[in-house]
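Researcher: Next sequence.
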Amino acid sequence: MDSDLYPDLAAAGSLAAALEQRAAELGTDLTVVPGEWGPLVSAGIASSVPERKPLSVHIGAESRWFGVSGWIHGVELITGTTSDLADVVRAGVAWGQGRSLRELRAGLSFLRSSKSAEAYERGPAAVVELQWRTMREQAAEEPGFTGFGELVEAAHAESRLRQLYVFSSHWTLGFSSCTGFPFHNEVAIVPSHRGSPFRVKRHPLSDGVLGEASTAEEAVALAVRHLPTDLGPAVAGTAEQDE
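Model: Next structure:
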């Protein structure tokens, strides 16, 4: 930590202590918890909403700024940077109270959220719908990779896959029964490329192949046969919550 950039943190002894002192000066209460990179440069501000992770706070190395990030169920809802520690305290309080994204952004202009975060507030079905729309747009932007585009469209046409959260890893389509990361992988399909067959796998990064197919439609049908029979629409959460 550069004491010239962060004299307040240097005087307090750590970012965590500086946050507590600034909160006291503002006349507000917050609970500071350990950060990911040690107390000098990182900290967390606890939330009273059980599903919300502590607001993560860290500092910049070459210029003065504080970065914040708020996560819930494996989805980053809010992020932003500011040079004012008081802004961080106010963000931590608002996050911990369960304020909506609109309320957070209205009260603190340095905060921003993604389309995925906004969809999260509407429910897992909205997240899945947005992710499929984004994936189809991505496929349309790759006209030279016909196997990928064919696979995305064939998978979207299948209702049992369309209800799952779709993602790609090295062009392999993965299908998750939860919308947060780490995902709960149900099945994955590798697109055809330069004459290779479509391949169905259990996980995008696994070596094992469940089967091969010559067309995207056949690969999708094969993938569906490997889904649990009672599998429903993707839900909010992560694979870790199932453990």
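Model: The longest strand covers residues 75-82. Residues 124-140 form the longest helix (17 residues).
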